[in-house]
Write a structure and sequence with these properties.
Distance between the termini: 32 Å
Order of helices and strands: HHH
Largest sheet: none
Radius of gyration: 13 Å
Helix content: 40-55%
Number of helices: 3
Number of strands: 0
Length: about 70
């Protein structure tokens, strides 16, 4: 039995991006509003500041634009 489901691809958002488009791309990938992802990012930035910023910058270099 073969399932022909389309593969989702994670890309950085272009249309509603603020900085690098990472939160926008994650929102579109998971099917949620990018504002929710941005709020979660800001909430996690308080306890995990520098490591989260480094992960965000690396994601900006690795994830392709839409």
């Amino acid at each position: 039995m073969e399932l022909n489901m389309p593969m989702k691809k994670l890309t950085r958002g272009r249309k509603d991006s603020v900085c690098l488009g990472i939160c926008s791309g994650l929102g579109h990938y998971f099917g949620i509003d990018p504002v929710v992802v941005r709020i979660l990012f800001i909430g996690l930035a308080v306890p995990y500041g520098i490591p989260l910023l480094i992960a965000y910058l690396i994601s900006g270099m690795v994830i392709p634009k839409a």
